[in-house]
Each structure stands twice: as structure tokens, then as C-alpha cells.
Amino acid sequence: MEEAVLCRSPSEIRELFAILICTCGLSNPLQLWDKYKVALSEDILHRFEKMDQVNNDLCLNEALIHIEDKIIRISGKKLSDFDTQVSETEPCLLPEQKDIYNKILQRVELEKIRKNRNVELAVASSGIAATFLSGGSTAHSVFKLPLNLASEETPTCNMSKNSARGALLQQCKLIVWNECTMSHKRAIEALDRCLQDIQNNPKLMGGVVVLLAGDFR
């Protein structure tokens, strides 16, 4: 990674990072991410700067989305499928945050909903955060959200009610969105429009129960 940062583009560095996670069994991928996250997201930051909409959290989040997409392409797995990610990310939560997080998961009883054969979706704004959710994935990949949310006035999810993903959302009873505060507000607005269309319901989120979790301070 150290040599790649000196002579490779951010996209190529993200590709290398994904390969390392998939094939090298990294013992501490978060430490590697923290060390090189600026280089991994440099091109994204420049794009935001040109739009005068610099947001470091959104830049890093988009970089993680690109990395997870590469991991899926390489291995067919998500970030949450790599046990090392889970074991290394859990200590990053403060004791109070972890306690609240566990209480939320117990309250919504995701596994109970699944056992009753009802459809629920557990998503997060980043691949790292998705590892905390059983069967979780990124909101961008599940809802087909555009990456250029900040530059679109009314972004929409890239799916139709007749698609396989649309059919899944029609049956959905609950959506849990972890670390939603890391996403642009237009991502949530896009999901709202999508669910109203797919559910044929003008109510907020098409009448689907959506639990938004994150740091709202």
C-alpha cells in the first residue's frame, strides 16, 4: 500500500485494498484504512471540492462504497462476510454507543422477522457499518442509490417496481438503516420517493417502517 500510494491513482489503490481484504486475511483492515483513507478517497474529495460541497464523511463513505463494490466483484462477498472486519470494528464503538446499538437490534428483532418469513432489509451507509448488521449491506447497493447525490436536485433509486429488487421492496416490512447520518439527506429522500412508487402508497416511506440509526448530535 505504501508504494502504491506514491505512484497509483486512488481508484487503483482502492482496487489493491479490496484485493488485500479478499485474499490476504488482513488481521486489522481498519488500521490500514485509517492509515490510507485520504489516499483512497483523494479523487472523490477533488470532485466534491469542484462542486463546493466538501464533506469528508461523504467522501470517505463513497470510497468505502467503491471498495465494497470491488470486493463483491472479486469474491462475490460483502464486507460483512469477512470476520476480520467485524472483530476489528466492534471496539470502535464507545460503550454507550454499543449498548444503545444492541438495544435497538433487540427491539426490532430482525431475526424474529426473518423467521416469520417476512422481508426485512438491514443496510448501512458504509461497508464498515454494514458489518454490524446480520445480513447487512450498504444502502447504495441495496437501494441502487446514485453516487452523485450532492449534485442531483431530486435523485432517484435506479430500480423499478417491476424489477426483482422492486418486487423485494414490495414485500418489505421493515428497513433498518444504520449510520444513516453518514449519508446525504437526499439519499433518504430518494428512498422515500422509491418506496412510495413501489408500494403505490403516498405515505412517508410508502408506509414501510424505516428505522434510522446514527449519531444525530
From TrEMBL:
Catalytic reaction list: ATP + H2O = ADP + phosphate + H(+)
Span of domain DNA helicase Pif1-like DEAD-box helicase = 107-217
Cofactor (UniProt): Mg(2+)
Q: Please name the GO terms that the record assigns under molecular function.
A: 5'-3' DNA helicase activity; ATP binding; hydrolase activity
Give any single GO term for biological process: DNA recombination
EC number(s) per entry? 5.6.2.3
- Name the protein family: Belongs to the helicase family.
Q: What is this protein called?
A: ATP-dependent DNA helicase
Tell me which species this is from.
Trichonephila clavipes (Golden silk orbweaver)
